Amino acid sequence: MKSTTIFLKRLLKNYSMLVGVVILMAVLAVVVLVPIFTDTDPNKIQYDSMLLAPTSDHIFGTDSFGRDLFARVAVGGRVSLAIGLEVTLGTTILGVLIALFAGYYEKFDIVVMRVMDVLMAFPSLLLAIALTAAFSNSIEGVSIALTVAYTPRTVRIVRSAILTIREEAYIEAAKAIGVKPIWIIFKHILPGALPVLIVQETFLFAYAILAEAGISFVGVGVQPPNASWGNILSDATSLLREAPWTVMFPGFAIMLTVLAFNLIGDGLREVLDPKRLKGNAYD
Amino acid sequence: MKRTITILMLVAMLIGVVGCAPTVEETATPEAAAPTEVVTAPEATAAPVVEPTAVVETPVELYSDKEFRAAMTASPQSLDEGYSTNAHTRQVSPFIFETLFTFGEGFEVIPQMVDTYTMTDDGLEYVFTLRQGIKFHDGSDFTAEDVVASIDRYKTTVQAGKKLDAITAMDILGDYEVKFTLSTPIGLLPALAFPQRPVMMPKEVAERNMGTELKGEDVIGTGPYKLVEWVPDVHIKLERFDDYVVDERYDDASGLGGMRIAYFKTVFLLPVPEAEARMAGLETGEFDYAESIPATSYDRITGNTDLQASIVIPRWSVALEFNHKNFPTSDVNFRKALAYALDMEKVLTTITSGNKDFYRLDSSIYTPEQFYNTDAGSADIYNKPDSAKVAEYLAAANYNGEEVIYLCNKDFDFMYKACLSNAEQWQAAGINVVLEFSDWSSQISKAQSMEGWNINQTGLSPRLDPTQLNSSLSSSAAGAYGYNNPDMDALLAEIALGGTNEDRKVIWEKIQAKIWEEVVVLKVGDIFELAALNNKYEGFRSFFVARFWNVTEK
Amino acid sequence: MIRYIIKRILIMIPTFLMVAILIFCVVNIIPGDPAAIVKGNDSIADIETIRARMGLDRSFLERLWDWFFKLLQGDLGDSYFLGRTVLEAIKERIPVTLSLATAALSVAIIVGIPLGIIAALKPNSLFDTAIMGVSLLGVSTPEFFLGLILMFIFAITLRLVPSSGYTPITDDFGGWAKHIILPALAYGFGQSAYIARLMRSSMLEVLNQDFIVTARAKGQSELMIIIKHALRNAFLPILTAIGMIYALLLGGAFITESLFRIPGAGNLIISSIRKFDFPVVQGALLFVAAAILFVNLIVDILYAFVDPRVRYGSKK
Hints:
Strand content of chain C: under 5%
Helix content of chain A: over 70%
Shape of chain A: elongated
Number of strands of chain A: 0
Oligomer: heterotrimer
Strand content of chain A: under 5%
Distance between the termini of chain A: 33 Å
Helix content of chain C: over 70%
Number of helices of chain A: 11
Largest interface: A-C, 45 and 53 residues
Number of strands of chain C: 0
Order of helices and strands of chain A: HHHHHHHHHHH
Distance between the termini of chain C: 17 Å
Structural class of chain C: mainly alpha
CATH topology of the largest domain in chain C: MetI-like fold
Order of helices and strands of chain C: HHHHHHHHHHHHH
C-alpha cells in the first residue's frame, strides 16, 4: 500500500534512528554470536588470569575470577536482553488485552482504571523488587515482576488511544451495521492504536533493561552465578580503583543498548505521528 | 554519537591509567612532645642493680599528646564481652579492660593482673597473688574483692555459659590474695583468659550489673585507655589512663597483654565500612590506620612512601561447617566426598585473586604461629583432590543428585569468593550444590535453625584455647550443628581439665585427628588480611586484634 | 477550586487504602521464614512458639486485618530484627532519602531547564544538537554507572569529595554538601536530560503558536516574548513532569543509596527484604507510596492553580 512505502521512506531518512538500529544490531550480534564462538565457560573461574587489564587475548580484560570480561558481557547481555524482550512482549500482550476490553466495555473500564491507578501510585522499581523476591529472584521471576510493574503504563497509553478512536465515525458506522464487537476491536480499533503502542514498547524495552540492571546491581535481581549486566557491574564496584575496566565495559554495554532503543523510539515517534504522541513516551 | 562514546571511553581509560600513579603528600614534621618521666621506685636491695639500657641513649619519649585515628570495618554493638562474641567488641575491649590471665603473642596463656600463683596437685585449688597498686579508671584500687565480684558477675552473663561453673568458692585471703576452689580440675587459667573474657571491674560496678550489659558510665576497667565517648556507628573515643600501671615483667607487648604503653593521648576508633573510604582516608592522612584493605591494593600501598603495609597473620581460617542432621551431609561418606573434591589452592587463589602473599595452605585448626598447631589426621585428605575417591564416597553415601544447599553471604568478600570456587568444584564433581545468599547475620540465624541447609560457609578467627572448640564440636553446642559423638565429648572434657601445655597438646592432636576422620568441619586454608598505617609510626605489630599501644612516632 | 481540591483528596484515600492492601499482599507472598531467622538467635524456644509469638500462625486475612487496623491507629508494628519499632526505623531514614531526592531534583531543574530553553531558542543549531545529544546519553545511562564514573574521577582520582557515606544537613552543611554532591549529580543527571528535552519541545510548540506570531507582529521585543508569553505557557507540562520526577526519584533512590552507602529509606527496604523483616518492608513501602501520592496531590493542585481550564472545570 502506498502509505506503507511513504512510511518506510520517512523511516529511512531519519538518520539518528538508523544509527540506533545499527548499534542495536551490533549489540545483538555480539550477544548472540560471541558465546557460540568462545569455547571457555564464562562462569568458570580461571586461576591464572585474574584481574588482567585489556589485552589482545582479552579485549575487555578479566575480572577478579579470571573470567574473560568480553565473554561475560556477551553472556550477561543475553540475560538482560532476554528479560527486556520478555517484559516488552508481556506488557504488550497484557496491556493491549486489558486496554482493549476496558476501552470497549464501560464497566470493566472503571474497575481496571482504579487498579491501574493503584499500581501506578506505587514506585515501579520497588514493586518489582518485592515481586522478584516473591519469585525467589529467578530470571523468570524478574521478568514477571517487571512485566507486572510496567503493564499499567502500556494500558494507559493504549487506552487513551482507544478512547479517541472509539469516537470516530467509522466505528459508529461499523456498530450500526452490526459488525461483531470482537471484530471491531481487533480489525478497526487495534490497528489505530498500533503506532502509539509501538513507540511505547520501544521505550519500554529501554526501561526494562535499565530496571533489570538497577535491581540486579543492588543484589535483588538476577543472582550469581547467573550473569546479567547489572550484577556484573555490582561485582565490579569494589574493583573500581584497581581494575576500572571491569566497571567501564559492562556499563557502556548497558548505555549503548539503551541509547539504541531510545534513538529508535525517537525516530519511530517522529515518523508515526509527532503531534499525537508528544509527551506520552516517558510516562 | 558513536564517536562521542568512543572518546568518552578513551578518556575514562586514560584517567584510569593516570589515576593509578600515587600522589605524594607532604607530611608535616612532628613536633617534639614533652617527655613524661616514668618514675620507678628506687631498688633498696644489696643485690647488684642492673643498669637500665636507656641511660646511655637519649630518653625515650614514651607519651605524646597526639591523637591516633583508626578506620575500622565496623562499630561494635556492645562493649561487654559477656554479651557479645562479636569481633568488633573483642577489638575494643583490650584497650579498656584487663583480666587475671590473658593470651600472649604466641597465643599461650600469660598472667596479666595476677603476680604469682600456686596450684594444688589435684588441680582443685588455686591461690592467686595479685599485682598491687593497680587502679581502675574511676580511681579506686584493684583488690581481691573486685576479683570475686567480677567473676560472680561474669557468671551471670550470656557468654559465660558453663565455663566457670566449676568454681565452687572464691575466698579472699587478703587484700591481694584470692583462693579459688574447683569442683573438677578444669584448666582455670585458660578459662580466665578466654576470648569472651571475665574482665576485671570495680566491685560496685559488678554488683550493679549482675545479669545486665555494661553500658555508659559503667564501662570501667584497668586498661591503658579509658572510654571517653561511644557513639555507635560514629566513633569510639578512648583517652589515655594516666594512672595506668605498666606491667614491667615483660619487655614488650605480648598478645593482648605484656608491657603496654599508651603513647597516644587519644585513640579514635572510627567505623568506616567501605574499604575504598578507609584507603582514601589513609592516603589523605585523615586516618592513621586502615583495617582490612583488599589484597589487590597491596602494590599500591607498598609503592606509596607515606604508608606501610601490615599483613595480619594469622587472620582468618576459611572453613566449612556442615549440618549433621540433614541428608546428605549427615553421612560422613558424603562429607569425605566433599573434601576429596576440593583443590584447596584453587579456592585460596580465588579469594586472593592470585596474590600468593595473602594465603597459606594449612590443614590445622591452629595456625603455625600457635602452640597447638598440628597436621594430625589431615595428611591423606587435606588438599588431595581425587575424583575416584569422590565417586567412591558418593556411592557409599547413596547420593543420587539430591540438592545440597550451601549457605553463603556477600558481606565478607573472602567467604563470597570461597563459595563460588567451592561450588564450582563440587558441581564439576557431580554434586548438585545450590548456592543460597543472604546477609551474614541472617545466614548464621538460618544455620542455627538447622532447617533447609547442608553446608555453611564460615571463617574462623584464630582459636585461642582448645576449650573454645567446644562450641563447634560438643554435642550440646548449637554451633556443632547436630554433630554428636561421645568419643569427641570425652576428649573435649579431658582437655578441659587443664594440665601442662604439652599434655594438652597430646589430647588436642587426638581431637584434630578425629575432626579430619569424620570431617566434622572442613578447613580450607588460611588467609591473611592487609592493613596499612601511616609510615610516620613504628612499633606496630600485627595481631588479630589491632593494637595501638606501644606504637610511637618515628 | 476548593471543591476540586477536596475531591482530589477524597479520591486519594481509597487509593491509599488499596495501595496498603497491595503492599501487604505482595510482601507476604515472599517466600522466607522470618521465624527461622529469629529462632537462630534464641536456642531455647521452639519454632512454633516463636511463630505464635510473632503472630505468624494466624491466617492471611487475620494478619491483614490486624496490620490494617493498627495502621489506622498509626502503629506500624515492630521490626523483627532491628530492635525498634518500624516507625522509628523509618523516621531516621526518610529525611535522608528526602534530602537525596531533593538534591537530585535541584540538579535536574538547574541543569535541565536552562539547557532546554537555550536549545529551543536556537533550534537545529550546533548548540541544540549538542544539548540534545548529551541529553540522549543522559537518559540512556543508568545512574549507578554514572555514579561510578563520577566516583572514579572526583573521589578516587582527584580526591575532591568522599566516595561514600552521608552527613545529615543538620549536623554540618559542608559535610552534607560534600557527601551529597556526587550522588545528586549521578541521580539527577538523567532527569535533567529528560527535563531539557521536555522543555525544548514544549517551548518549541509554544513558540510556533499563533499568539506568538501576533506578539512579534505587534513589535514586542524578543526577550519580553520569551519571558511573558513563551515561558509561562511552556512551563505547564514541565510542572507536572517535575512532580512526576520527584515521585520517581523517591521511589528509585535505593540504587543510588546502595552505591554511595547513604542510609536512606530505600536502602532500608532492600536490606529488610533480604532479612525477611516484613514489618519494616511493609511500613517503608507504605511511607514511600504515601509520599508519592502526596507529591502527586500537590502537583495536581498547583496545576489547577495555573491552568484555568482545570480551575473552572472543563467538559472533556
